[in-house]
């Protein structure tokens, strides 16, 4: 016989909102909800961690455009547009820098196949009304002299910027604390449901937190919280990304930087990016692996990143390699996030941001605060309702976001 289960200890207080998960999405939601006068508690053993600790922080609405994702493009652009004001407000609230850098991006092709692929992307960008300029290989190297001589052409996208996700997370944490958000240093183990309504969660130390509304913002883990009814459990899965951090050489004032903007390419079918920060860090990413919960940094992953990065920018082999790490992108079946109310009253979702978590942080915080305050999502976020995946006997209530496919 099992010993009788210890009944949960009731946490003091009854916040308006309990946020499960203190990554950048949970923190932005908490910060914005607190700014609207709600009392907010965040449950997370290491707030400010999660996928953002690994992410490169590209704000790449235009260069990461994919066929079939035009609706997501709208949300990505809405968030990119909010970034300058969001950063200004956050830096003021936290008294800290976020490493936001308006440097633009250059996406280049190394061979004829890549060039054809980039031409198609350019056509899609132009059809979508985006600002993207085709450059010859020579023009690319004029912009970024460290590029390999074999570069065949590229796209100059001056509107795709970057931020340092670790600094962003740390600033959000401080801003939350200053706004009165409470933190519980524990993992949520189970959602509590009473009378057909989510009422909070039991944490892994046995504490029960009762809350008016609960937001599930636990990244890849959002799909496996006990107690969430099957039909509203978000269909998110982890997609592993391995990333390297190198140190850029100091350059005397007035001399050209090693790289002055984000440089991307698709090398042998693998997306690759190099993100130079003002802090002197160069982020090289990323693998994309469907390996469940595995976060091992592998020799093969590091080898492939360095091999491809060397093909793109041969000089990187001279740089100190200071870190390798792996994280999990929370991925939904249509690659778009799940935002706002679920079929279960009292439970909202902010998860499934896949490759765009950092980019979508400002808009997510704002639309979630609106949904928590009013019970419904603002117009721009409605396509991202979790109801598009709700399983009923008649099938999903709404179709996932599948759109134009390449011809
Ligand atoms: N957005 C870049 C990545 O997910 O690798």
What's the end-to-end separation, in Å? 62 Å
**Widest beta sheet: strand line-up:** 6-7-5-15-16-17-14-18
What low-confidence regions span 5 or more consecutive residues with pLDDT below 50? Answer: none
For the record, what CATH class of the largest domain applies?
Answer: Alpha Beta
For the record, the CATH architecture of the largest domain stands as: 3-Layer(bba) Sandwich
What's the CATH topology label of the largest domain?
Answer: FAD/NAD(P)-binding domain
Number of domains: 2
Share in β-strands: 25-35%
Report on the biggest sheet: 8 strands, mixed
Helicity, as a percent range:
25-40%
CATH superfamily of the largest domain: FAD/NAD(P)-binding domain
Helix-strand category? alpha/beta
Instruction: Name the overall outline.
Output: globular
**Would you tell me the overall average pLDDT?**
94
> Could you spell the SSE succession in H and E letters?
EEHEEHEHEHEEHEEEEEEEEEHEEEH
Radius of gyration: 22 Å
Number of helices: 7
The overall strand count is 20
Your description of this structure?
The chain has 7 helices and 20 strands. With 407 residues, the chain is of the alpha/beta class. Helix content is 25%, strand content 25%. The protein has 2 domains: 10-53 and 167-235 and 333-393, 3-Layer(bba) Sandwich (FAD/NAD(P)-binding domain); 103-160 and 238-331, D-Amino Acid Oxidase, Chain A, domain 2 (2-Layer Sandwich), CATH 3.30.9. The longest helix has 25 residues, at 70-94. Strand 16 (270-276) and strand 17 form a beta hairpin. The structure holds glycine (GLY). Glycine (GLY) binds next to loops.
């Amino acid at each position: 016989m099992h010993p009788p289960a210890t009944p949960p200890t009731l946490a003091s207080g009854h916040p308006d909102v309990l946020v499960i998960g203190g990554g950048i999405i949970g923190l932005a939601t908490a910060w914005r909800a607190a700014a609207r006068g709600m009392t907010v508690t965040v449950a997370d053993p290491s707030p400010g961690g999660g996928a953002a600790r690994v992410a490169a922080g590209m704000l790449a609405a235009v260069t990461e455009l994919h066929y079939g994702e035009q609706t997501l493009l709208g949300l990505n652009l809405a968030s990119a547009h909010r970034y300058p004001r969001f950063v200004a407000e956050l830096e003021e609230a936290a008294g800290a820098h976020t490493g936001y850098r308006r440097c633009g991006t250059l996406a280049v092709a190394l061979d004829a196949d890549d060039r054809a692929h980039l031409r198609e992307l350019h056509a899609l960008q132009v059809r979508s009304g985006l600002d993207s300029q085709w450059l010859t290989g020579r023009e690319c190297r004029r912009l970024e002299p460290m590029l390999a001589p074999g570069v065949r052409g590229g796209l100059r996208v001056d509107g795709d910027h970057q931020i340092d996700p670790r600094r962003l997370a740390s600033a959000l944490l401080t801003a939350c604390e200053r706004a009165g958000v409470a933190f519980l240093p524990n993992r949520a183990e189970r959602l509590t449901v009473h009378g057909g309504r989510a009422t909070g969660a039991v944490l892994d130390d046995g504490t029960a937190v009762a809350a008016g509304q609960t937001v599930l913002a636990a990244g890849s883990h959002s799909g496996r919280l006990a107690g969430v009814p099957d039909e509203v459990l978000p269909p998110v899965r982890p997609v592993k990304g391995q990333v390297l951090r190198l140190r850029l050489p100091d350059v005397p004032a007035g001399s050209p930087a090693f790289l002055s903007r984000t440089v991307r390419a698709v090398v042998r079918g693998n997306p690759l990016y190099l993100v130079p920060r003002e802090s002197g860090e160069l982020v090289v990413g990323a693998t994309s692996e469907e390996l469940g919960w595995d976060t091992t940094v592998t020799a093969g992953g590091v080898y492939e990143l360095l091999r491809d990065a060397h093909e793109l920018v041969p000089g990187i082999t001279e740089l100190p390699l200071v870190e390798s790490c792996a994280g999990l992108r929370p991925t939904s079946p249509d690659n778009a996030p799940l935002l706002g109310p679920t079929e279960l009253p009292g439970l909202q979702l902010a998860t499934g941001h896949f490759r765009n978590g950092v980019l979508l942080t400002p808009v997510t915080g704002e639309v979630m605060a609106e949904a928590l305050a009013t019970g419904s999502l603002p117009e721009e976020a409605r396509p991202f309702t979790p109801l598009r995946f709700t399983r009923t006997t008649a099938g999903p209530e709404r179709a996932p976001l599948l759109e134009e496919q390449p011809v």
